[in-house]
Each structure stands twice: as structure tokens, then as C-alpha cells.
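Morning. Coffee machine broken again, so started the prediction first thing and wrote up yesterday's gels while waiting. Chain of 126 residues, entered below exactly as on the submission form.
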Amino acid sequence: MAEDRLEGEDAELWTRFHETVNMSGAELRSWLLTDASGPEVFTSDPAMGITATGRDVLHVLDKRRTDLTDDDVRTMRHAVDEVAALLSHPRPDDEKWRHALMGLGHDPLKPDSPRPGDEPGVGEPE
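Came back before lunch.
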């Protein structure tokens, strides 16, 4: 059996990441490909216009806890912090705001989406 390398804060971060990133890997992959296919964004780049952060979040979603690297832990922390910062200044009528959240794996329109003030630490920047 593989050893779980997450302890303490990192173990808590794993939980927060999976609560914050409320899109499945398949949903995020589909969103990233759709978002990257817009006329202003689509390029001939092999990365297909998908943001590095989006790719990194997707990569973490496809992993088990036991397979995480230090880079994955940094990605989780970045995603949780960025989503919290964006949720702390909600702009539900702003399409760019929603797209920024979805690029991090958080769909603010999902019923399980944390709202600022709903849960301690979610939607509030640290």
C-alpha cells in the first residue's frame, strides 16, 4: 500500500481543494477546451490555449493523495487561494469573473458552490 505523504496542513489543504474545486475532472477538461476554443483565445499552440493553472488543477484532480508532488501541493494552495479571492468580491453578472473561477475548477452556479460567509475559510482570502 502506498504511503500517504500528506500530513497536517497539507492534508487539510487536500480537503479544502476538493471542496473548493467543485467541478469533476471531466467537467473541468470540457470547460477548459470550450473556453480555449473561443475566437480570441484559440491558437495553434500544442497546449490549445488552455491556461497553465487550469491544466495543473486538472492534473491534481486526476491524482490520488499518495501520488501528489510538492508542485501539486502548490497548485492546490494556489487554486484554493485564488477561488477564495474571487469569491470574496462576487460579480455574478460578470462573465469574466465566472470564467476565471471555472478555469480554476470552481463553478459558482453549481448548487454546492460555497458563497462568501457560508463556511469559515471558504470565499474569504487568507
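The two ends are 35 Å apart (CA to CA). Going to sketch it on the whiteboard this afternoon.
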